[in-house]
Amino acid sequence: MPRSHWFFLSVQVFCLLVISLVSPVDAQESATSDKPEAAAEQEDAVHRLPSHYSEVVTEAQRKTIYEIQDRYRDELREMELQMLALIKKRNAEIENVLSAEQKELIRKVAAESKAQRDRLKGLREQIEAERRKAEASKSGAAGN
């Protein structure tokens, strides 16, 4: 397969990845807005210290860092949405460069790739289930 096909495929996969990362956040926000205890859990999830900070900052510094994160959250979210819209526009322009045959080939390759990932996921789940079953058998036999 030509390198250009792999490039376009990787661009599409990247976009799907970005969208999949953003979509769960939207769903989580709408799901937690109804429940106060869930909102508190969401706030804890949103408040994350940068790498390696948790071991060295005081509680007062931690609160200050969280306040700073809160001040920038909406602006950063808006920029993320703008970036996603720009990526979508760019990808549409890129896709318009391709012929219909090339677009179809990319769709087929992407579908094959997804099918293979799904098969591998199923195999991993099956292996994990067998591992758990074997562990349960061992612990059951050891307990007898």
TrEMBL record:
Q: Does the keyword Coiled coil apply?
A: yes
State the species of origin. Lignipirellula cremea
From the Swiss-Prot or TrEMBL record, give the protein name: LTXXQ motif protein
Source organism phylogeny: Bacteria, Pseudomonadati, Planctomycetota, Planctomycetia, Pirellulales
Give coiled-coil spans as residue ranges: 69-137
Note down the stretches annotated as region Disordered: 31-52
Give UniProt keywords alphabetically. Coiled coil, Signal
Q: Which residues form the signal peptide?
A: 1-27
